[in-house]
Amino acid sequence: MSVKFRLILMNFLQFFVWGAWLITIANYWFGTKGWGEVEFTTMFMTLGISSIFMPALMGIVADRWINGEKLFGLLHVLSGITIFCLPMIDSTGAFFWVMLIAMCFYMPTISLSNTIAYNALKSGNFDVVKSFPPIRVWGTIGFIAAMWVTNLTGSKANEFQFYISAIASAVLGVYSFTLPKCPPKISSMEKSSFVEKMGLNAFRLFTNYKMALFFVFSILLGAALQLTNMYGDVFLSDFKKIPEYADSFVIEYSTIIMSISQISETLFILAIPFFLRRFGIKKVMLISMVAWVLRFGLFSYGDPHDGLWMIILSCIIYGMAFDFFNISGSLFVETQCDPSIRASSQGLFMMMTNGIGSIIGSLASGFIISEFFMDGENKIWSDIWLTFALYALAVTVLFALLFRHKHNAKDFENFSH
Hints:
mainly alpha; Growth Hormone, Chain: A; 15 helices
């Protein structure tokens, strides 16, 4: 079995695990359980809370003490066991704590999967910028497959979405021990500074103004991503409250409609090598930010009938918004760090986006929606999405003005070494 195929299977299962419930949990929360908006916002913050410390911490462990693929497998087994327990819970408080534990196990595996892939590809003398995107695209395909399985089995509003995820996580956990070895890069503890002994070298990236600013904007874009994860599917499902849309295909198969976003990702991922080498990280990130503005703006004016084209176009644009930020950003961080801190640097990027950014997105959106965009028990979706679009526009303008980076195509051409 080739190295690339083994990494493809890893990526497919990695995001199948997440896709089984991430987009549909709001339907389970509000529809099946009847739990509240504030509690939902708090629960969703578990992704951010766990991402603040666990990816960086597990990155340090992988850089210094334990093979990355073994740590990856152990975390997935523990995550699967915890996710399996979620349907047994009948209170929002207990659900929060169990979900937090599950996310503490799962969230580090996202950056670890990148680390394992980069290490395997470089060890095999592959061009990482050229080879990684076609491998990573199978993660998106896995996410799509999970969304379709959840929707077509009638599980988008019930507990079976968690069982689907847990089973996939267990399978991946066992499979992970067969992956290419990703040994620690720092073996000697002698003559090391305190920072090196603690594995905190990656945080020195903040001493570089360009990287510090890059991480700040990673936080701001991470908040934008959280808004889509939290409210995308339930936004479409809420059209059932309007009589003229009650029997719409969009409502019955909302998760499948949302999966167009991930289908779009599969195309834009493959375009990343061209865009990075031709335009550089600043322009690629700007393209991503403009795409976020369009993503939210089109949702604001879309509906299941005459405005269906706007919803579909928004989903297509999402592929560019997500990939040109998350995946290009991860590749950029790889070009800026030493191989000895690869795992912890990827964990740091994860901390900024899915950690701090996620928490900001959860807290801010929950407060703004509950305070300004509720009509009784109904959300005023058009105003919500328009507000998010204006936020993304402000981030775009600030990034264009503040971020300075001279593009050098050789940074990516020499990426395999």
